[in-house]
Amino acid sequence: MSEGEADDAGGMRRPRAAAAVAAAALFAAVAAVLALTTPWNPLPGNVPGGRVRPDPALDFSPAELARSKAFDSAISPPAYTGLVVGLALILVLGLTPLGARLIGRVTARTGHRLLRVIVASAALAALLRVAGLPFDAWRESVLRRYGLSTQTWPSWLLDQVKSLGVAWVISTIALLLLYWVAHRFPRYWWTGAAAGGFLLVVLVSFVYPIAVEPVFNKFHSLPRGQLRSDLLDMARRDGVPVEDVLVADASRRTTSLNAYVSGFGSTRRIVLYDTLLESPPARVESIVAHELGHAKRDDVLYGTLVGALGIAGAMCLLYLLMTSPRLLRRAGVAPTGPPGRAPDDRGGGAADPRSIALVLALVAAGTQIGAPVQNLVSRRIEARADAHALNLTRDPATFVSMQHELSVRNISDLRPDALEYVLWLTHPSGPDRIAMARTWARLHHVPQPPPLR
Ligand SMILES: [Zn+2]
Predict the structure, then answer these.
(1) pLDDT tens digit string along 336-390?
(2) 285 catalytic, yes or no?
(3) How many whole angstroms from 51 Cα to the centroid of ligand 1?
(4) Which one, 67, 87, 129, 354, has the greatest CB density within 10 A?
């Protein structure tokens, strides 16, 4: 071994430097794309009389405000404790030898390396889901107390099993690819992981509406009639090619109202909760106009591509962390084998399936760190879809009444605090959206929707 390699087991310095440069470049690209393309101000222009400030008391009765506050107090403890316990568990498993020991035990009789990946992934996914179950059940009991859930416990439990199955399939595919490429190319697996991560995110987002959503809901076309033809007319007027509007049997699970766009290209669909169909048609149009805003801007595809770019950067960072002998030792995994040789499968290194707990811990930490940025950008994109709905319907009064109905029926948080915005809010709050509709009315010299109470 030469002098230079003494502190560079396996000649990892050069690939690590390359991975660091790639990670920095990819994260810089994501930051630049987000900074330049996020609609920071979806309603540009000089607003006569100024922008309207959100004021929940203007449109919501004291009883509605009190109910929202009580629901928030009831749903927050399971949400926060579930988040903290879930994170703490995976961090303890991944950043101490506990996870590696556990995986060693459950895969002791499993011969093939990739089979060990499958077993380890199943064991960890199940363990994490079971640990989260009390908090999910607690949350469900709150939803039930407030009349938001229509499920029985057996059907709720079946949902938990299904979502465990979906999470397990997706994470197993990802881990199999990762451990295959890490084993095959011990020094340069970050290139394959970055490319594979990018493609997998795009693929999952594309097939999600046809492969995952039907696991949880049944869908049918919105029946022929006035509403359907009005909605398709509106889409045509908007220049968005929509052949069908789907209805999901959401009422088997919830009383809340919602609609969404998922997929892109040939899998793109606009879906309405069946609970929404009891609302007045003009309000449904207001919601669909918002969804058309997403469809027209290809928000799902855009979010998928930016997310995929972020995952590619994260894979380069993952390589840097997973080739750190200190971190591997901390996780109870022996670092690379003899210098210059591929880490052998039992011997250690990032290709050792016992490091899966460490991978999951790093992914969980990264996801949590990225969430506030994701939520911030999502809120601006949602506001742009709202602006689109207002431009298309030119009916801020109906928009306001729909937002009011959404907030009341879903018992939305009418006064979210700063932490709630950062951690949970993918959409502006109901009062934020209502204030925006009033701002839109001022901007377009249309009568401002009066207070609802
Ligand atoms: Zn939206």
Answers:
(1) 654 555 444 434 578 899 999 999 999 999 999 999 999 999 999 999 999 999 9
(2) no
(3) 22
(4) 354
DSSP state of 448: P
Residue extent(s) of CATH 3.30.2010.10 domains in the chain: 219-294
What pLDDT digit, counting tens, does each position of 253-264 carry? 999 999 999 999
Dist. CA 363 → ligand 1 center (Å): 26
Q: Is 427 within any annotated ligand binding site?
A: no
Alpha carbon separation from 49 to 59, 400, 434, 442 (Å, rounded) = 20, 19, 17, 8
Q: Which residues of 366-387 are buried (b: 16+ CB within 10 A; e: fewer)?
A: beeeeeeebbbbbbbbbbbbbb
- Give CATH for domain 219-294: 3.30.2010.10
Q: Residue 290, annotated ligand binder?
A: yes
* Residue 335 near residue 278, CB atoms below 8 Å: no
Residue 346: what pLDDT?
Answer: 39
CA of 344 to the centre of ligand 1 (A): 48
pLDDT at 10: 58
Angle subtended at Cα 379 by Cα 443 and Cα 286, rounded to the nearest 5 degrees? 55
Are the CB atoms for 209 and 260 separated by under 8 Å? Answer: no
pLDDT at 445: 95
- What's the mean per-residue pLDDT of the chain? 93
Q: N- to C-terminal Cα distance for the chain?
A: 80
